[in-house]
Automatic annotation (TrEMBL):
It comes from Reticulomyxa filosa. WD repeats lie at residues 30-71, 72-113, 114-155, 156-197, 198-239, 240-281, 282-323, 324-365, 366-407, 415-444, 445-486, 487-528, 529-570, 571-612, 613-654, 655-696. This is NB-ARC domain-containing protein. It comes from the Eukaryota. GO terms for cellular component: histone methyltransferase complex. PROSITE patterns: WD_REPEATS_1, WD_REPEATS_2, WD_REPEATS_REGION. SMART domains: WD40. The keyword Repeat applies. Keywords: Repeat, WD repeat.
Length: 742
């Protein structure tokens, strides 16, 4: 009866263990789709669920057992939507392949293919008795089809642009459609004649619904408004305003009294249907809300977002009840099971998941949640660590104990060169200087009018360099807090700045695709280096200051002469964005990493590629070199950190344990330890059994000394479950899916 909720079980050996009544807090994924899962639809009695994917298949699952019942194959391009018939015996699907298909749910057979649309079919719906289907398309038309013959019965024309969706009225006597032509049209379902044209929206009308009583129509548009219309007169009754970005969908509450809307502005909003008044704003998601649904009793809402989380909300208070984490991409579908105790979700990470919310609520961890940790750095003497999270906190940690010492505000941070101060920068466009011992704010630096992306200390520790989305670079005096230099020249946001080894110059790179070199004392631009044809990711000086290296989304690395500005070398070989590139300490070689999952070593004199280091199974975000250049430390989207021998190109160590992409790594100044942070919301301190982490060999044992933060999801990679007793078949499947072996 042990609870393994959000536990790290990596490499744990459970051989011969008794596992009766184990609770994992997660269920096995519904396995089958080989590409992005675009949506899910429950059958009317909620005993089955249909999922559809970019792999062009529809799969039907049994909700009680999670078993796959059948696979519906036939579409040749992306599926736009699926819907069950009212008796649950058939499914209608529509696709980018221009067809509408009707399927038998029990056998999985394709009964009819309805062909006639000239472009993508955007929506399709059964009539009440399943004798007809209405469909809409990007070919500007709506078509009514006879189900038994598969023939087109009516062609409804009138829209002058793509028709986004179509729907029968509750009594099936009317049809409503909306279009990119900004209009909404009401049609007679039997004759196909247009009854009303509803005009008022000032941009694409994305979606439209009849109210449950059929008397009104609710529409939402790219003009960020929701509107209520009278069906008989065609008059606009109300405009519901509040969302500040595109609205992605609306839902009626089960009793028909409320409207739920969700938007690219990261919020969900509840409205009173009759008065049009906004009742609640549900805030918590950190990115656009893609989907949301009411529970069957209307007391709860589940939402899915681009921030990879699913959130559960209480309707009466508007408060967030739970956050469900585990998906690694945008959530495209959510829904409650019939008893409202479980939630089904699907995502662009190709998975469909089941969540037990009744039990998870009881054991949601309290405290210790650090948010997603974006960066970690050691202090100069290696005794402290500073971390920054997406919850806009900067935290100071004691290396010895892993204890939190201070919390500051900000979205980025850096230690001063003497380690006595922490510098933070924030989304409020300010820079703050904090005293480490007291935690007091010493200075507030104001001047930037855009987000600050990077800060660096001048080599004498007297000044600070910052760069921003406002296209400027600024130098500040630390003791007075005054701005002493302003550099202008870039035409877009400046993403990175680095100081030359002699402290006289700054190199900057920008989204304007240029690299620029500036004289610190005069404030003048010395060089503008042009050649990259896409965003420049990074630029830095060589250890002797004579060269500059830059890497870009154009898949190239370029070496420039610091005095003349001439391009010396163009290095091509990576198949994807080059995310980082650095000089070796001896100035003879370069190391780079890329979204092509590789690390490459290059000869600086010939420009030839010397080694390709392969092992990572996903993007390699960043690299660090040991001080003598003998080892390379890499971090990746594949949740691992790897240590490589630079001369042989061999992987020496694989550091596993994190359950999310590795956002940052840093090595202490004495080379003894490594700190890492991840999207799994934890920070880990790593060490070796034979002294320093920079001296490890293949025979060394490297493990984490401590971790802080509440980990996201279960981690079971390389765990052993030989001859364990008491696991259910579903639990065994879960263990296998999460990387355990039997």
């Amino acid at each position: 009866h042990v609870r393994f909720y959000q536990t790290c079980l990596t490499k744990v050996n459970f051989t011969n263990a008794s596992m009766n009544g184990i609770y994992f807090g997660e269920y096995a994924n519904l396995e089958g789709h080989s590409d992005l899962v675009l949506g899910i639809q429950f059958s009317p009695d909620r005993t089955k669920v249909a999922s559809y994917s970019r792999d062009t298949t529809i799969r039907i699952w049994d909700t009680a057992s999670s078993n796959q019942l059948c696979v519906l194959k036939g579409h040749s391009d992306g599926i736009r939507g699926v819907q069950f018939s009212h008796d649950g015996s058939k499914i209608v699907s529509c696709s980018r392949d221009k067809t509408v298909r009707i399927w038998d749910v029990l056998s999985g057979q394709n009964i009819q293919i309805l062909e006639g649309h000239a472009f993508t079919v955007s929506a399709a719906q059964f009539s009440l008795d399943c004798s007809k289907i209405v469909s809409s398309s990007l070919d500007n038309t709506i078509r009514i089809w006879d189900v038994s013959s598969g023939k087109q019965v009516k062609l409804l024309e009138g829209h002058s642009n793509s028709v986004n969706t179509v729907q029968f009225s509750p009594d099936y006597s009317k049809i409503v459609s909306c279009s990119e032509d900004e209009g909404i049209r009401i049609w007679d379902a039997s004759s196909g004649t247009q009854l009303q044209l509803l005009e008022g929206h000032s941009n694409d009308v994305v979606g439209v619904h009849f109210t449950p009583d059929g008397l009104n129509i609710i529409s939402y548009s790219k003009d960020k408004t929701i509107r209520r219309w009278d069906v008989v007169s065609g008059q606009q009754i109300q405009i519901l305003e509040g969302h500040t970005e595109n609205i992605n969908g609306i839902q009626f509450s089960p009793d028909g009294s409320k409207i739920l809307s969700y938007s690219d502005d990261n919020t969900l909003r509840l409205w009173n249907l009759l008065s049009g008044k906004q009742i609640q704003v549900l805030e918590g998601h950190t990115n656009l809300v893609a989907i949301a649904r009411f529970s069957s009793d209307g007391s709860k809402i589940v939402s899915g977002s681009n921030d990879h989380t699913i959130r559960l909300w209480d309707v009466s208070s508007g408060k967030q009840i739970q956050v469900l984490e585990g998906h690694s991409s945008t959530i495209t579908g959510v829904g409650f099971f019939s008893n409202d105790h479980k939630i089904l979700s699907c995502s662009l990470d190709n998975t469909i998941r089941i969540w037990d919310i009744a039990l998870e609520k009881k054991i949601q961890l309290t405290g210790g949640d650090l948010g997603i940790i974006m960066d970690t750095k050691f202090s100069p003497n290696g005794s402290k660590i500073v971390s920054r999270s997406n919850d806009k906190t900067i935290r100071l940690w004691d290396v010895q104990s892993g204890r939190q010492i201070q919390v500051f505000e900000g979205s980025g941070a850096l230690f001063s060169l003497d380690g006595s101060k922490v510098i933070s920068y924030s989304s409020d466009k300010t820079i703050r200087i904090w005293d480490i011992l007291s935690g007091k704010q010493l200075q507030l630096l104001k001047g930037h009018s855009g987000l600050i992306y990077d800060i660096q200390f001048l080599s004498d520790n007297s000044g600070l360099v910052s760069c921003s989305g406002d296209t400027t670079i600024r130098i500040w005096n630390i003791s007075s807090g005054r701005q002493i230099q302003l550099f202008r020249g870039h035409a877009d946001g400046v993403k990175r700045v680095k100081i030359s080894p002699d402290g006289s110059k700054i190199v900057s790179c920008s989204d304007d695709r240029t690299i620029r070199v500036w004289n610190i004392s005069s404030g003048n631009q010395i060089l503008s280096l042009k050649g990259h044809i896409k965003r420049v990711r990074n630029a830095s000086f060589s250890p002797d200051g004579t060269k500059i290296i830059s890497c870009s989304d154009d898949k190239t690395i370029r070496i420039w002469d610091t005095s003349s500005g001439n391009q010396i070398l163009l290095l091509k070989g990576h198949q994807q964005f080059v995310l980082d590139a650095q000089f070796f300490p001896d100035n003879t070689k370069i190391v780079s990493c890329s979204a092509d999952n590789t690390i490459r070593i290059w000869d600086i004199f010939t420009g030839k590629q010397i080694q390709i280091l392969e092992g990572h199974s996903d993007w390699v975000f960043g690299i660090k070199l040991s001080p003598d250049g003998s080892k390379i430390f890499s971090r990746s989207e594949d949740k691992t950190i790897r240590i490589w021998d630079a001369s042989s190109g061999k992987q020496i160590q694989l550091l596993e344990g994190h359950n999310g992409a590795i956002r940052s790594i840093d090595i202490s100044s004495d080379g003894s330890k490594l700190i890492s942070s991840s999207t799994d919301k934890t920070i880990r301190l790593w060490g070796s059994d034979n002294g320093k982490i920079i001296d490890v060999t293949e025979r060394s044992s490297v493990d984490y000394i401590w971790k802080v933060g509440n980990q996201v999801g279960l981690s079971m990679k390389s765990s052993i479950w030989k001859d364990t007793k008491g696991l259910t078949p579903q639990q065994k499947l879960l263990v296998k899916q999460r990387g355990g072996t039997f």
